[in-house]
Amino acid sequence: MLTVKPGERTSFSFTCQDPEKHFVLEIQKNIDCTASPCPLGEVPLQPPAAALPALNRTFVWDVRTRKSTGLELRFSGPRLRQVGPGDSCPDGVTYTISSRVDAAVVKIGTFCGKGTVSRIKLQEGLKVALHLPWFQARNESGFSITNHTAIKRLCIVESVFEDEGSATLLSANYPAGFPEDELMTWQFMVPAHLRASVSFLDFSTSNCERKEERVEYHIPGSATNPEVFRLDDPQPGNMAGNFNLSLQGCDQDPQSPGALRLRFQVLVQHPQTESNKTYVVDLSQERTLSLSIEPRPKPSPRFKAGCFVCLESRTCSPKVTLAPGSKYKVSFLCDDLTRLWAIAEKTLSCSDHRYCQRKAFPLQVPDDVLQLPVQLRDFSWKLLVPRDRLSLVLTPARKLQQHTHERPCNASFSYVVASAAPDLYFGSFCTGGSIKQVLLRQNSSVTLRTYAPGFHSEVPGQGLTVSFVPYFKEEAIFTVTPDTKSKLYLRTPNWDRGLPALSSVSWNITVPSGQEACLTFSKERTGVVCQSGRAFMIIQEQRTQMEEIFSLEDDTLPKPSFHRHSFWVNISNCSPTSGKQLDLLFWVTLTPRTLDVTVITAVVGGGVSLLFALGLIICCVKKYRKKKVNKGPAVGIYNGNINTQMPLQPKKFQKGRKDNDSHVYAVIEDTMVYGHLLQGSGGSFLQPEVDAYRPFQGAMGDRPPSPPPTCSRVPTAKLAEEKPPPCTSLEPETEPYTFSHPSQAAGSNRATHVPLLDPQEPGLPAE
């Protein structure tokens, strides 16, 4: 180390070949202006670069003044750009500027070239350190020092914008902490035809004993100058012309002072067309609707002008959230509105099942949201019902199509339906399909998700209606009517993860008159392995109530089957092992119904036989009449042995009641014979339903099929080896062999639940 003091002349040399890697040179000049004014003008580099060795060198100017004297640093060369701790400058040239507060040195910041900072005003002295790399042959400092009146604050940093651009600036002593109870100001010079917005990138506050930390804006044309904001408030934007931003500290708690620091960005850009247009979003009548406008998650590889959402044309930020109960005026300061999107959420809940039952509520996007010039990404409705009291019915204005790989949705928007229970996703649906209605058991969400800008013109004519119905226990019931022109593809919920354990889903498939439906499954086996319970599928004809039951664990799936009438498909899951999960894809196609050739032959043959019989009868009648014509004339003779009464119409039964069996019952019920004895003795009078025919009085096809008795779930191969277990049906014991489901009231079309899993079966949890 070698030190050369003022007035000394020293010669030196280095013993190494690369001294720039081992030595640095520091030239420090102390300037005392406490007794007289400081020298004005450009600050020279002394000694000149030619007289110094090629080392990394630092020039330091330490200027001391009286406490009430102000100084101004003016940078004549390229304006400066502030950098944070750890950042470096591309050319290696940096300015480190500090000030004094009493005896303490406060670092204002470190700066590189090619920025916006043109002047820095300080009070009570300054210290400038210019760092030059050894290969820089520079002969001037690039700044000048002038006297200035007292600024009555720590410093003032002036930033000049001549065109669009941005600047990132930091508070003094960043990140160590802003000096206690100090004031720092930034002055921004912005052309009148440009607009500026401020956003805070990082900040923290200290623990204040007195006063409050805040930022203040002096905005041209504002009637409330200065405008005061908290650091966590949205900051102003869309400001035209020059403005000032000040950071005010507080009196800190000496025991736990904390640290006040701020890093922020100022963005200057041309005003956009949308910045002059205001959109009114009225949420004053809403209690559960909230709307967020935020940037899309697409990082840009290059600099782009900012995209801000402004409230009341002044408070701007990259993201805003509009809460229910207020009315907002929204404008945009953005060069490309496709960089933003909107996300909304609304809760629709029913707390009183007596009020909500059978009532319908539309799921429609409000016009105030649709009018916004940004894409509506998601609009979600949370549908909440009383537990075990009500269920949900979704009815679309136009029939829906389920999104599958075989037939994907290509519309500009779709409805994503999911249960509030974890891991239960019913699917994505778009308009133009065959699904007329979706019944959901419990709390669910419906999300309208958009994919193309054209949804604005399509979505007003669409919509869903939700209604509340009595509770049922199936996870979902889909009512569908296939189209005669295309296949109807359907798949089980949770396609990617499998149907949840011990859950059941049904499809009510309507077959139009004159059509025949072909039901086809995409694979032969499900591959599911049950840990407990049974996984099975029921296909039931709604007209005849005939059922086919398949074990999804053991049996192969049915081959394509044809149905001329509406039918049910019910799929119930077991509790599968951690391997293969239950997922099924099937489709339905319609073809015109054709008559059976055997039936046609029988009908034609019967018609020919009938015609032949009629012809034979006619011939016999004619011959009989001819024989009667050949008799002689009639003679009237009284015969007392002849019955003179007029012949009566022949009786329907030729035998009398005592001679035929019309009074004999096919089945005589005991209660009809002994009922008077039971009534007389006070016993209960119950009419048995077994072995007595009664016509079905209920509605047909209004509910999914019930599961088979437990004994019918035993695989066929085991029936020959083992004694069948006793049957335990889930239906009432008075109807052990019927598959029909009469309603409580004739003509009722309400879907009610029939349990699909026997709660008493071993391995299944009780309800």
Automatic annotation (TrEMBL):
Residues 2-33 form the CDCP1 first CUB domain. Keywords: Disulfide bond, Membrane, Transmembrane, Transmembrane helix. Residues 740-751 have a biased composition (Polar residues). The chain crosses the membrane at residues 599-621. It holds the Pfam family CUB_CDCP1_1. Residues 154-256, 473-587 form the CDCP1 third and sixth CUB domain. Residues 695-767 are annotated as: Disordered. InterPro entries: CDCP1, CDCP1_CUB_3rd_6th, CUB_CDCP1_1st, CUB_CDCP1_2nd_5th, CUB_CDCP1_4th, Sperma_CUB_dom_sf. The keyword Transmembrane applies. It comes from the Eukaryota. Residues 45-147 form the CDCP1 second and fifth CUB domain. Residues 279-365 form the CDCP1 fourth CUB domain. PANTHER family: CUB DOMAIN-CONTAINING PROTEIN 1. This is CUB domain-containing protein 1 isoform X3.
